[in-house]
Amino acid sequence: MIRQIVLLLMTFACGTAVAIAGDQPQWGQKHSRNMISDEKGVGDDFSGEVNPKGVKWTARLGSITYATPVVAEGKVLVGTNNRYPRDDRHQGDRGVLMCFNETDGKLLWQLTVPKLKSVRYGDWHYCGISSSPVVEDSKVYVTSNRCEVLCLDINGLADGNARPYTDEGRHMAAPGREAFKALKTDADIIWRFDMKVAPIGAVPHNATNCSILLDGDLLYVSTANGVDWTHRKVANPKAPSIIVLNKKTGKLVAVDDANIGPDIFHGQWSSASLGKVGDKKQIFFGGGDGLCYGFEALDPKLATGGNTLKKIWKFTCDTTARKVEGGASSYPKAPDSPTVIVSMPVFYKNRVYVAAGGDPWHGKRLGGLYCIDPTKTGDITKSGRIWSYMGLGQSISTVSIKDGLVYITSYGGRIHCLNADTGKLQWSHDTGGEIYGSTMLVDGKVYFGTGARRRGELWIFAAGKTKKLIRRIQLDAVVHSTPIVANGTLYVATGETLYAVEGKGK
Q1: How far apart are CA 237 and CA 241, in angstroms?
Q2: What are 350-390's pLDDT values in tens digits?
Q3: Beta-strand pair 242-246/252-256
Q4: Distance separating alpha carbons of residues 451 and 481, to the nearest angstrom
Q5: Rounded distance between C-alpha atoms, residue 325 and residue 327, angstroms
Q6: Domains in the chain and their CATH numbers?
C-alpha cells in the first residue's frame, strides 16, 4: 500500500501520468476475469536458460505447475506438486502451495496436502495444487487437491497459529498416519470446508482446480463434481456445481439450482466470474454439461445459510454436440461428441466471452469461442448468441480483451486475435506447442506460454490488428499456467521454475 501511495504522490507532484504498479492478488482482473493488466515497462527480453539473464530471481517449483501465481502483500504464491521436496518430512506425491518473498524469492512457508486416495481418479498423479489462490486482507483462499476450500494466513505459522483451526499437523498427514509437528515454515489454516462431505457430497474427477471468485464477504467456488473412475456415470449427480461460502467463517451460504450434475460429461474445471448487467450483478459459470450459465449474484454481505444461487439463463455453446444420457465421458472423438467448458467466462462491455470445445483428454478436436448477451433470460442459445468463432479448435484458455480485440489460445498451439464486436479473425499464429494457460495482455503486448517435448517457451506478440512477433524465449520446462505482472515484475511459472523478470529500466 505504501508503494502505491508514494507513486500516486509522485504523479501529482510531476503533473504527469505515471503508471501505478500494484499487486496481482488473483487470476485475471477482479470480478470480470479479463486477462489484462494496466502496468507499463514490463520486461520482454530475458533468458530462460540455466543461468538466466535479465531475471530478478528464480525459484524451484515441482515437476508440473498448473496454477498461475498471484502476488499480494510482499508475497508470491503458486500451487505445484512435491516432485522436489522442500521439506524432507514430506516425501512422494503431494499437493503443495508455496509462498515466496516477493523481493528475493526466498521460500517463506508452504501448504503440503496428502493425495486424495479415497476417490479413484479424483486427484490425478502429480497434478499437485492446481488452484490459483485469491488474497485479501492477509487471507489466502484456495481449493486444495483434496476437494476442500481453505482459508490461510498469508504469513504462515511464523507469527503464531490463527484460530479457529489449529490442527495443521493432522491436515499434513495422510489418513491413518501420525500427525506432523507444525513448524513456522508450514501454512497456517484459519478455516477449512470439505466439499466431499454432506451437505455438498462432491466427487472430484482428476483435479480440484477452481480459482475462487471473491465478492464482498462471499466466495464462489466450483465443487469439481464429476464422473466416477469408470467414466460411465456421474458419481453424485445430486451434488451442486457451485457453492457460496462466507469468507470469514467458511460456512455454507448457498448452492446453485441449475441441476448440472446429471449431465456432466467428464469433470468441472471452470471458475466463476461476475459482471453488472443493467443494475444487477450476475455470476457466470461454465458447466460440466457444456453450457454457460448466468446466476443472480447474492448480496455481498450475506452471511446466513440456506440460500439458493438462482439461474437466470443458460446457453448451449455447441448445438451440434451429441448429448449423452446420464452424463459420462466415454465418447468417441467424433465431430458430434459432447462439448465441455474449462475456461472462465469473461465479462466485457455487457457481453460474456467463453471458449468451449472437445475435451482435450477424451473428445473431439473441434471447439469455438462464443459471445453471449447476458441481458436475456431462460434458454438463450438462440436469442443470446451475438457471434461464434468456430475456427478455434480445442481450448481450455480464458480470453484477454482490450481496445475492441479478443486474444485467445487453443490447446493445439495457436493464438487467435478476433474483433470483439463481430468475431471476425484478424490474425492467428501456430506455435507448434500445446497451450494450457491463457494470454496476458499488458503494456501493448500479448504474453503466453507453450509446451512441447518437455520444453517450454514464452511467446510475446504485439497487441493490435496486425500480427507482429516480438520475442520467443526458450524456458527450462513446459508452461501450463498464465504469465502475470505485479509491481513492475513479470512472473512466468514453468512446470519446474518460477521466473521473476524485472521490468525495463529496473
Answers
A1: 10
A2: 999 999 988 887 778 889 999 999 999 999 999 999 999 99
A3: antiparallel
A4: 11
A5: 5
A6: 58-194 (2.40.10.480)
